[in-house]
Specification:
The complex is a heterodimer of chains A (about 270) and B (about 300). With about 270 residues, chain A is mainly β. Chain A is built from 3 helices and 17 strands. Chain B has a single domain, classed as 4-Layer Sandwich (Metallo-beta-lactamase, Chain A), CATH 3.60.15. Helix content of chain B is about 30%, strand content about 20%. The chains are: A mainly beta (about 270), B alpha/beta (about 300).
């Protein structure tokens, strides 16, 4: 499924009206979400997720360029989520994150990342299930300026570690039990909306587009992302380790065609 | 309504720039004058008057330290100088690139005045200036000029002395701390140290540089031989004792964030759980605490 917006479509979305109320979506908010749905899931209508999905984000962001968000899976009534999406409705590119769970994943781990929020907006999480259902839930967030916010508090430190990846695993791992891990990728994730006054030009977009995570050769997650992801993208995922231990491999591709690849040993351990 | 506002805007625009009222200043040491900003966020009501700005009068010239958050504040500072001396303003020193400290720079535009800043300020300000100017529009006094960026004439990369005529100011450019372009000014005649936002007193510190860098810089800063400090925000105080509350707080933040990260606590949960008991100690805690912890968390993850 192709959920990227064309530049023209993205511009159309930028020019639509901003969200006004937080009590419930305004007609303009609803219209905008319908447009996003139509582009991402043509001809389909997501149903309210109820207890199956929950979307967590701060009501007001501490830093609009670094907003922690998470999607948790609840009672799916025997169904199974195969793909999870995160949309920030009023961002220039609404789709922030699309995650396809692989055979080595523990989908109960849901989705967790950090995003940029450009203006007060509704956010949506959408789940595609094995039985073909499309489930949605939403929340409102107060934050603005995240996409054009100047990046890089310390450009020299950022350059020194560019391309590095870091994997955070829990201290104890028990084979057969799901492990939640965090992957950090040192990358400016430039949005193309950050202005450089000296050069009188916009810093070109340069962002992580795709991340593949595998455990012992089997896919844990295929992630498609966009400019909404914060600088130094952070991705959480869950998988079930083998008794003998193994290797976690990550490939990250950015919009400039650069590929970052790294692997880490994952210990087995007492079961 | 909207056309009425437009009409009002059209009527206001062609008005010539009014001579600003002199800003109230206090002589905190002989020849050292401070205008203390309000401990508030910039709003239309306070006109962006939220940072400490001031000037030092030497035997032959005046140096301005930070120009305020708007052109009207910069002109008000110039008017306050003119109430006290006819000596030329030879230097305008910027302690770092934040808008509440630099957007009045253009009020001092003059062939005889040099703008002095950390060597990394021009790039840092350039990357943010459009954002600053757009935000400043919300607190700009009606009829006030839109701020402009002036070129930096004297870029300090390590340290530098400025002579005001029998009075030497020692400028020090620091490694990344509050921002990546913090500059301090020591008036050697009175032992008065202007730290810019390397020191917040009473007001919750904001972080736009490096927490670990700031902790290291504070160790060196504490050794600067000064008697009195003028912080970027808050009242002047004794040196180095006035540094301690902020130093203790930022150390605590670093330790607590590290501990939470070791326990696998994510960013969202870490914000309310870090140094939450300091809520009543710092002004503007609700605004700046989440920002500080978010930035600290993202930095410490790469340790």
């Amino acid at each position: 499924m192709k959920t990227m917006l064309s530049p023209a479509a993205a511009l159309l979305l930028v020019s639509s009206l901003p969200a006004a109320a937080q009590e419930g979506p305004t007609p303009a908010d609803q219209e905008r979400w319908q447009a996003v749905v139509e582009m991402s899931f043509p001809g389909r209508t997501p149903e309210p997720a109820g207890a199956a999905l929950s979307l967590q984000a701060p009501a007001r962001a501490g830093d609009a360029a670094l907003v922690p968000v998470g999607v948790q899976l609840g009672d799916l009534g025997g169904d199974r989520v195969i793909r999870l999406h995160l949309f920030i409705d009023d961002n220039p590119v609404p789709r922030a994150y699309s995650l396809t769970f692989g055979p080595a994943a523990d989908p109960a781990g849901g989705l967790e990342t950090r995003v940029r929020v450009n203006e007060y907006t509704w956010m949506h999480a959408v789940a595609e299930t094995a039985s073909g259902r499309l489930l949605q839930t939403a929340t409102f967030i107060k934050a603005s300026g995240g996409c054009s916010a100047p990046a890089l508090k310390d450009p020299e430190a950022a350059r020194a570690r560019a391309g590095r990846m870091k994997l955070n695993l829990p201290a104890e791992i028990h084979p057969g039990r799901p492990v939640r891990a965090q992957l950090l990728i040192s990358h400016p994730n430039a949005t193309g909306m950050q202005f450089d006054q000296i050069g009188r030009t916009y810093i070109p977009a340069d962002y992580v587009r795709q991340v593949s995570i595998r455990y012992n050769g089997r896919s844990v997650a295929e992630v498609e992302t966009d400019i909404a992801l914060s600088e130094d993208p952070s991705l959480h995922f869950a998988f079930v380790p083998d008794a003998a231990g193994g290797t976690l491999e990550v490939d990250a591709h950015d919009s400039e065609g650069k590929v970052y690849r790294q692997s880490w040993p994952v210990p087995g351990g007492p079961s | 309504m909207r056309s009425g506002l437009l009409l009002l805007a059209c009527l206001l625009l062609p008005l010539p720039v009014r001579a600003a009222d002199p800003l109230p200043v206090t002589e905190v040491a002989p020849g050292v004058f401070l205008h203390q900003g309000r401990q508030e966020d910039a709003t239309a009501a306070n006109g962006g008057d939220i940072a400490n700005i001031g000037f030092i009068v030497g035997g032959a010239a005046v140096a301005v330290i930070d120009s305020g958050g708007s052109m009207v504040l910069g002109r008000g500072l110039l008017a306050a100088i003119r109430q006290r001396t006819d000596l030329p303003v030879r230097y305008v020193i910027n302690t770092h690139m934040h808008p509440d400290h630099v957007l009045g720079n253009a009020a001092f535009r003059d062939p005889g005045t040099s703008l002095v800043a950390h060597g990394r300020l021009p790039a840092a300000l350039a990357a943010r200036f459009d954002t600053y100017r757009a935000r400043q529009a919300d607190s700009r006094t009606a009829g006030d000029e839109v701020p402009a960026v002036l070129p930096v004439d004297i870029a300090v990369t390590d340290s530098r002395d400025l002579d005001l005529g029998g009075r030497v100011l020692r400028l020090t450019a620091w490694p990344t701390a509050h921002t990546n372009n913090d500059l301090t000014v020591l008036d050697t005649a009175t032992g008065t140290l202007w730290t810019g936002d390397l020191l917040f007193r009473d007001r919750h510190p904001s972080l736009d540089g490096s927490l670990l860098g700031w902790l290291r810089v504070m160790d060196d800063l504490a050794a600067v031989p000064a008697r009195t400090v003028v912080p970027g925000h808050g009242p002047p105080g004794p040196w180095p004792a006035a540094l301690e509350p902020q130093r203790t707080y930022l150390r605590t933040v670093a330790e607590e964030v590290r501990t939470l990260q070791r326990r696998g606590v994510g960013l969202a949960e870490a914000v309310p759980r870090t140094a939450a008991e300091t809520k009543t100690r710092w002004l503007l805690f609700e605004t700046y605490h989440p920002q500080l912890i978010t930035a600290a968390y993202a930095e410490l993850e790469w340790e």
